[in-house]
Amino acid sequence: MVESSNLVKIEHYLYFVLCYLFGCIIFGLILTKFFYHGDIRLQGSGNIGARNVGRVYGKSAFVITFIGDALKGIAPIVVARLLNYSESIQLAGLAFATLGHIKPVTLKYKGGKGLATFSGGIIIFNPIVVPFFILSFGVLYAFIKNFNIAGLISLIIIPAVLYYKQNNLLSCIIVFGIIILIFLAHLKNIKDWVKLND
Known about the structure:
The protein is mostly helical. It has helices spanning 10-23, 27-35, 50-57, 59-82, 87-102, 115-125, 129-144, 147-154, 157-166, 169-185, 187-196. It has one domain (4-196). It contains 11 helices and no strands.
């Protein structure tokens, strides 16, 4: 039986739409256009995320962009808690914000890779995942020697930790769905790494 707190209501749909639209705010592009008078889509790798912004414009630009992107994940969790929404609805809001970052309607669905947005939201949702992620990343990086791939694979431990701590299957399924989105956004990176190690 589904608990009433997990049922999707009309107000939740509005919340999901707003989360997606907030995710569509591209801080990397705004920063580079207004403060550096450049278009990050035409520079470096062409990605609008924090790593490319940092490579082109330096550490300060990276930090500002990363914080902005992370806030897109933090806000849905905070707002949902203020509205007393269930954990599943909170995570669904995070999913829509991450989708907005990866596939923003504002940039014809060509966005970033979602890692900063997801990270900000999931840390606020349950900080207990942090030490497990760091431990997993450290072990994997020692063998793989690739920052991106070790980080991506380490994401998989997050739904497992949440299920162990909270025993909420629906929440874990939503988190796993977000991780799949992030994997798909990193597909080119994964393919390049596989070719190098073939």
